[in-house]
Design goal:
Shape: globular
Distance between the termini: 47 Å
Largest sheet: none
Number of strands: 0
Number of helices: 3
Strand content: under 5%
Structural class: mainly alpha
Helix content: 25-40%
């Protein structure tokens, strides 16, 4: 019986080319965990983040792989429904690394 070996890859290696060009982001914790997810976000904060492309609607840009631009033109009702659904997902404590700066050429 042959055992397969799991290969681990450092996070920057798995980012898309576009993410590496623009700086690297990591998939956000969208669960309702209070400390590492969106548990402390209000519905208004969530909607503003997807409309503006800014973390919590006011700070750093939301980077790839989050396709926030695909959501910015959703209706308020649709965005509130997504928020309501995400609040029903079991919370997961998962601190996401800070975004990577763009590569220096």
């Amino acid at each position: 019986m042959t055992r397969s070996r799991r290969r681990t890859v450092s996070p920057p290696a798995v980012l898309s080319r576009d993410a590496r060009v623009a700086g690297g982001g990591y998939s956000a914790n969208l669960t309702p965990d209070e400390n590492t997810g969106i548990g402390s976000w209000s519905e208004e904060t969530f909607v503003r983040a997807l409309r503006t492309g800014r973390h919590m609607g006011v700070s750093r840009p939301i980077l790839p792989p989050m396709p926030w631009g695909a959501f910015r033109n959703f209706s308020d009702e649709d965005l509130r429904s997504i928020y309501a659904y995400l609040k029903t997902v079991p919370p997961v404590k998962n601190r996401v690394p800070e975004p990577l700066p763009p590569p220096v050429e």
